[in-house]
Amino acid sequence: MNATSWSLSGKTALVTGATSGLGRAAAFRLASQGAEVIVHGRNAARGVQVVEEIELAGGHARFVAADLSDTAEAIALAEQAGDVDILVNNAGLAWFGPSDQLSAGTLDELFTGNVESAYLLTSSLAPAMADRGDGAIVSVSSMAANVGLAGGAAYSATKAALSALTRAWAAEFSPRGVRVNAVAPGPVATAGAKGDTAALGRTTIMGRPGTEEEIADAIGFLASPASSYITGVTLAVDGGRAAI
Ligand SMILES: NC(=O)c1ccc[n+]([C@@H]2O[C@H](COP(=O)([O-])OP(=O)(O)OC[C@H]3O[C@@H](n4cnc5c(N)ncnc54)[C@H](OP(=O)(O)O)[C@@H]3O)[C@@H](O)[C@H]2O)c1
After folding, report:
1. Does 124 have pLDDT greater than 60?
2. DSSP string covering 142-191, please?
3. Backbone phi and psi for residue 182, each to the nearest 5 degrees, phi listed first
4. Is 58 left (phi over 0), alpha (psi -120 to 50) or beta?
5. What pLDDT score was predicted for residue 2?
6. Tens-place pLDDT, residues 71-94
7. CA separation, residue 176 to residues 132, 135, 233, 240 (Å)
8. CA-CA distance, 19 to 91, in Å (whole number)?
9. Residue 193: CA count within 13 A, CB half-sphere
10. Per-residue confidence band for 149, with pLDDT thresholds at 50, 70 and 90
11. Which one of 19, 69, 94, 219 has the largest count of C-beta atoms within 10 Å of its C-beta?
């Protein structure tokens, strides 16, 4: 293994939803690999805290707030971020329950928050990466995109959409040096996790939930030159659950 191939020194990374959970862990991971990280979220207090913690650990970061349920704010975030080398489309929300109890408004929120925001950010930032001939995009899909979970129809569809976008964007941008991949995490006990994470973890081959760091490691790999021949892939980081 070439240790330098994991280095993100000199790179700028935008991580959406980095004020909490998987995004926060990914922000720390990319900063530890040497990237300057733009920490995004809605909650400024937690955003500033994440920035301070990254800097205390020797990294570099700044916070940008945007509500990605508002398409104008998603586009403004891309403008404020400027020339980024790495985009992690992590921000998202989940809803689980009987399909006839999902309101049209919440269905709309799921697709806006999980799909449309990633689409707008990627379509705004990837062309400049392609012009520079270098970039990495990692979207956070879900195990729910790969296995049928009762109550998860709409959420699963949003996450499967991210995998479809990942393949199409790889075809569109990778010939010009921008790798586009996704991770599909299994259950991880975060503030945003829905349902019984421990019980869902027991259904995996590994018999346990994942940790934020295990998901962040996969994101750090796909964001770095260590994965230089990988594009268009959704990497399952789910204790093997999608394999059975
Ligand atoms: N945890 C799991 O088991 C699991 C499994 C598979 C996939 N995922 C996916 O992983 C991603 C992160 O989830 P998590 O579990 O880490 O949840 P989390 O702890 O609740 O974090 C969600 C993050 O997204 C941000 N966010 C949510 N809606 C937003 C919006 N409309 N505009 C701007 N920011 C928004 C939040 O920002 P603020 O708090 O600042 O508002 C927060 O930083 C999601 O896409 C989720 O679907 C999670």
Report:
1. yes
2. -GGGTS--TT-HHHHHHHHHHHHHHHHHHHHHGGGTEEEEEEEE--B--T
3. -140, 160
4. left
5. 65
6. 999 999 999 999 999 999 999 999
7. 8, 9, 17, 33
8. 9
9. 21
10. very high
11. 219
DSSP state of 43: -
Spell out where the chain has E strands: 12-15, 36-41, 60-65, 86-89, 135-140, 178-185, 234-237
Of 15, 16, 19, 22, best ligand 1 pocket probe by most atoms within 8 Å of the beta carbon: 22
Q: 131 CA to middle of ligand 1, Å?
A: 30
Cβ(59) to ligand 1 under 6 A? no
Residue 99 has pLDDT above 80, yes or no: yes
1 pLDDT above the threshold of 60 = no
d(CA 209, CA 238): 8
Q: Summarize pLDDT for 41-73 with one digit per residue, the tens.
A: 999 999 999 999 999 999 999 999 999 999 999
Bigger pLDDT: 192 or 100?
100
- Atom from ligand 1 closest to the CA of residue 141: 7
> And the tokens for 132?
């520079």
3-state helix, strand, coil in the chain (%, to 5): 50, 15, 35
CA angle 207, 213, 217 (to 5 degrees): 105
Give catalytic residue positions: 155
Which CATH number, 2.40.10.220, 3.40.50.720, 3.90.1280.10, 3.20.20.80, labels domain 9-239? 3.40.50.720
The total number of residues shown for the chain amounts to 244
Does the structure show a pLDDT above 80 at 3? Answer: no
Chain mean pLDDT for the chain: 97
